[in-house]
Amino acid sequence: MFKYHEPVFRPPAEAASAIIQATLGCSWNKCAFCEMYSSKQFKTRSFEELKQEIKFLAKVLPSTKKVFLADGNAFVLSAAKLMPVLSEINKNFGRIQRISSYALPKDILAKSYDELVDLRANGLKLLYIGIESGDDEVLKLQNKGETFTSTREGILKAHEAGIDTSVMILTGLGGEKYTEQHAVNSAKLINTINPKLLSSLNLSFPYGVEHYKSKFQGEFIPLTIAGVLREMQMFMANLDLEGTIYRSDHVSNQLVLKGVLNRDKEVLLNQIEDALANTPEGLYPDAPMML
Ligand code: SF4
For the chain, which residues make up each domain, given as ranges? Predict the structure, then answer.
């Protein structure tokens, strides 16, 4: 009988998608801020199992247009393993328009340009990438396992093969000490890749700040709500993009922002400025919000 291996995570934009767990957990599973898959051992799943699940889901969700391959970074699978899964999805879901998954830049770099083009031709059109930061120091303290350069190269390689990306930056990731370099270098990285979609999420502490501090490999001073807004302001002010859809509307965000960059940059900056003017200093995200 079909059953998901909990917990299951998917991007907000995949709420209406059929979810197929091509892998379980995250192959990296070492980022200091991330507890998403700490209860799971990374595993790939057999093609036979996936085939049964795809058939079942296509039968119960016949009008599905989008399929999301979970878990953490299903794109770690080689092109040789992904291709039959994509073919099976295309064969069974009559109305399929897009297949997507989470990916790490190293998962993209491990594939050849021709493999990426083939995957795109078989429906893999979008990769979700948690960049988190464009600052090498913050990335290292987080144990992200990626750098400014690896992230840029991976994402540009996907774009070159026709695969779009939706990327995420984590506001507050380096705390007060690293706020400026995190904001400025994240914007610098985003400017070099010009993704289709960009989201700002806020660092949150599911197991408390002390737990996070024990994993962060440097001095961590959490940002206040005003500090979060100032970091978003710095990040936004340094962005220079063409047609990127920007969102900060995750449950973790203190301020909801939506627009297209650069077109709406001034409007978004004004919204941050207004929020800052109405936010007292010294309030932390867990405290009652004034926005
Ligand atoms: S790579 Fe992504 S899913 Fe894996 S530990 Fe890091 S943030 Fe979490």
Answer: 12-277
Q: Is the CB of 105 under 6 A from ligand 1?
A: no
103 pocket-lining for ligand 1 (C-beta < 6 Å) = no
Minimum-distance ligand 1 atom for the alpha carbon of 30 = 5
Measured in Å, residue 273 CA sits from the centre of ligand 1 at 32
Query: Which pTM does this prediction carry?
Result: 0.95
User: Quick one: CATH architecture of 12-277?
Assistant: Alpha-Beta Barrel (3.20)
Centre a 10 Å sphere on the Cβ of residue 1 and count the other Cβ atoms it contains: 3
For helices 113-121 and 79-92, the axis angle rounded to 10 degrees is 10
Average pLDDT over residues 244-261: 91
Specify the pLDDT at position 288. 37
Q: In the beta sheet, which residues pair with residue 245? A: 197, 260
pLDDT band at 26 (very low <50, low <70, confident <90, very high): very high
pLDDT number for residue 2: 83
| Buried b / exposed e along 85-120 (16+ C-beta atoms within 10 A) | bbebbeebbeebeebbbbbbbbbbbebeeebbebbb
The one-character DSSP state at 132 is E
**C-alpha to C-alpha distance for 262 and 244, rounded to whole angstroms:** 8
pLDDT surpassing 90 at residue 289: no
